[in-house]
Each structure stands twice: as C-alpha cells, then as structure tokens.
Design goal:
Length: about 325
Amino acid sequence: MRLLAFLRIHFFILTSLLLLSGWGFFAHKRINYQAVFSLPPELFVFYKSYSLYISEHAVDPDKRRYILKEEACKHFIDLDHYPTIREQQVAVSYYAAAELYSEDTLKRHGTVPWTILLYMKKLEQAFLEQNSEHILKYSADLGHYIGDAHVPLHTTSNYNGQLTNQHGIHGLWESRLPEIYYDHYQLWIGQAQYLVSPSDSIWKCIFESHALVEKVLLAERDVSKQFNERKKYSIEHRNGLPIKNYSILFCKRYNERMGNMVEERLRKAIRFTADCWYTCWVNAGKPALPETKSKWFVKKSKEESGSADESCIH
C-alpha cells in the first residue's frame, strides 16, 4: 500500500511538471535547434554559431512561469471560451478580442497567438538594432511560444483531459511520444519562407491545432479500452526514483491511432519557427549580422547545458 501511494504521488508530480512545459523541455529545445537549419545562408551562419544557446534557452518561458504570474497565459488559448473567434475562423487583434471578451478574460483563457505577434515585433526591433543578445533571446522565446501553439491541447480548457477523465494525456502527447519516437521523425522541412501576413498564419496554426483536439482525446480513449492498468503503464527509474509512466506498447498504439500526428505538428512547429525568424529579419531590412561567436554566449550556454538535467522534468 505504501509503495502504491508513493508511486501515485510521483506520478502526480511528473504530470504536474509536464503541464508546465508546452512540448516538454526535450521537444522545445529540438524545435529551436532544428529550425536553425531551415534558415537561408545570410541567417544560418549567425544562428548556427549560437544554436546551442537558442536550443538551451527554448525553455526559458516555462521557467518564468514559476516566478511570473503573468507568464502563464502566454502559452495557450482556450478556444472553447472564445466562441465567436472559433466560429469565424479569422485572425483577431488583441484589442478587438479584449473589446469582445474583456482583457481579464484573455488573461484567464490564454493569449498565445498575440504573444507570438508581440515577440515577432521584439525580434524585428532587435534585428533593427543589430543587438545580438536580444536577437538570440527573442528568437529562443519566440520558438517556444510557436511550439506551444502547435499543440492541440494548448487550445482547449480540457488541456489535460481533466474534463473527460483522461488525466495525464497532456504529457503523453507532447512529451512521452516525442521522447520515444524522435529519432524516427523526418524533420527536414525545407528553407524558411517569408510570411506575408504573420497574423493570418498564426491564427491558421491555432485553428489547425484546435481542430485536432477531439482526435487527440478520442484516440486515447479508444486505445485505453485495449489495455488494463498494468499494461497501460510501466515503472521507470529517473534520477534514482521509480516513476509511473505510459508503457511503450500503449504509446505505440496511441501514436498509430493518431496517424503520427505528433511528428506532423512538430514538423510544422519547426517550419513556422524558421519562417518567423526569417520574416522578422526581412521586415527589419535584412541587416548584416556578426559571424563570430560571443564568448559570453558560448560560456553561458555550456554552463546551462551542463547544469540542467532534462530527465527530472519528463
């Protein structure tokens, strides 16, 4: 009985931590890193030099959620609480949405599409100023929010299946599956393209993500019928502690049932991140960027990559 209680506590801690990270730290870092390789030569040299920094700092927005109350709403949007927007399926400005629903409502039910636009403006300004530190900071943050927008469960108030008795599905979809299958994903998505209307592109992504919510939930529900508790979960050891997690076989069936949806959303997140970086640079007038590494960033990146143990948050 004590062992069972111990495992339940640790499973609760694990799923709680997973809810704090859009794709999980693992996938967020790889979205940013992979996006670098889709940039044109004029940007690639600069971004490749700092690819470790951009990858490591992809998780900064999640870390800020521990200390900044206003950070949380930037990572999601509950479209079921924005019926007019959901029905019209068109881009909506922050001010129009605030007038329609109130600013308090937006902060309560999420602002990720407007957050992406805000950080695109910040990145464009950083390019204009040719400020390397800000370019890297805002590029890393922007990639994080874009990644979140591509997760279906970040577009619904039933974000962890808590309304349909499917607790834990959030971490299953965005952390467990990428960790297991990442090496099998085909993630080369071609060269970045200029976004004529970033707002339209962002909202298209949001609506695409939301349209997949029902499939995400239904697939888990159907596959769960094929497994008893013992086969649905397995015990793994992380940092010396036994952790209850979804079994490899269950994940395989769930992944197949969704038709490799996770890989496809990951590919689109990578592509959209590269597109946004490129678009910001073009809108800033295509300024020249330094080609040599900053010793400060190299040192900082090495320190952080060495001190953070990803396994503790998966």
